[in-house]
């Protein structure tokens, strides 16, 4: 079956099984590192929602945590504008808390760097970054996630929460557009 979005055929990058294995490995490491810390997972919407849902279901059920979300935008179609627009904020106070920011993909590093700088102002005990994907060769700011599922090539990817003008987010596998 050929998947076509906006007239472009999608090519499979990672299967659902491959994604599940990557997420489980990442969740296991977080479970070990945060056994007694009661972290708050903060998902960056809209892209991180599928990854975050799978990740928190995969962490140790004994791990005590909370979740929250922020919504940002720095995209116009297939291109990052480089300008971060904050759309909605946190509902929980993170002062003194161990924060794990959940991001779908890091490309230029501009968006997530802005998020981290804003969160530092709220005085958390710690901030760690967890990303599903790190796109190689695109970074303008060198930022390495503390937890990373995998690196991806410099291709336009879609699915597993990632979209193209809001199309394709619900795909349970990762695809690329040639």
From TrEMBL:
What is catalyzed by this enzyme?
A: IMP + diphosphate = hypoxanthine + 5-phospho-alpha-D-ribose 1-diphosphate
GO CC annotations, alphabetized: cytosol
Instruction: List the subcellular locations.
Output: Cytoplasm
GO MF, one example: nucleotide binding
Pfam families linked to this entry: Pribosyltran
Q: In which pathway does it act?
A: Purine metabolism; IMP biosynthesis via salvage pathway; IMP from hypoxanthine: step 1/1
Task: Name the CDD domains on file.
Answer: PRTases_typeI
- Name the InterPro entries on file: HGPRT, Hxn_phspho_trans, PRTase_dom
Q: Does the keyword Cytoplasm apply?
A: yes
Cofactor(s) needed: Mg(2+)
User: Recorded E.C. number(s)?
Assistant: 2.4.2.8
Q: Which UniProt keywords apply?
A: Cytoplasm, Glycosyltransferase, Magnesium, Metal-binding, Nucleotide-binding, Purine salvage, Transferase
Q: Name one GO biological process term.
A: GMP salvage
What are the residue boundaries of the Phosphoribosyltransferase domain, all occurrences included? Answer: 17-163
Assigned protein family: Belongs to the purine/pyrimidine phosphoribosyltransferase family.
PANTHER family this protein is in? HYPOXANTHINE PHOSPHORIBOSYLTRANSFERASE (PTHR43340:SF1), HYPOXANTHINE-GUANINE PHOSPHORIBOSYLTRANSFERASE (PTHR43340)
The protein depicted here goes by the name: Hypoxanthine phosphoribosyltransferase
Tell me which species this is from.
Answer: Paramecium octaurelia
């Amino acid at each position: 079956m050929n998947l076509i979005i906006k007239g472009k055929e999608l090519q499979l990058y990672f299967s659902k099984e491959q994604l599940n294995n990557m997420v489980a490995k990442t969740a296991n490491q977080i479970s070990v590192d945060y056994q007694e810390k009661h972290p708050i997972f903060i998902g960056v919407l809209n892209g991180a929602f599928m990854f975050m849902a799978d990740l928190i279901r995969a962490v140790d059920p004994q791990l005590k945590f909370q979740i929250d979300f922020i919504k940002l935008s720095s995209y116009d179609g297939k291109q990052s504008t480089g300008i971060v627009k904050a759309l909605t904020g946190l509902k929980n106070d993170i002062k003194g808390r161990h924060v794990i920011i959940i991001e779908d993909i890091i490309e230029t590093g501009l968006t997530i760097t802005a998020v981290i700088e804003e969160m530092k102002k709220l005085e958390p005990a710690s901030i760690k970054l967890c990303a599903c994907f790190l796109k190689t060769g695109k970074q303008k700011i060198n930022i390495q996630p503390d937890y990373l599922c995998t690196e991806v090539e410099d291709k336009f990817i879609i699915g597993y929460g990632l979209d193209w003008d809001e199309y394709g987010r619900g795909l349970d596998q990762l695809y690329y557009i040639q």
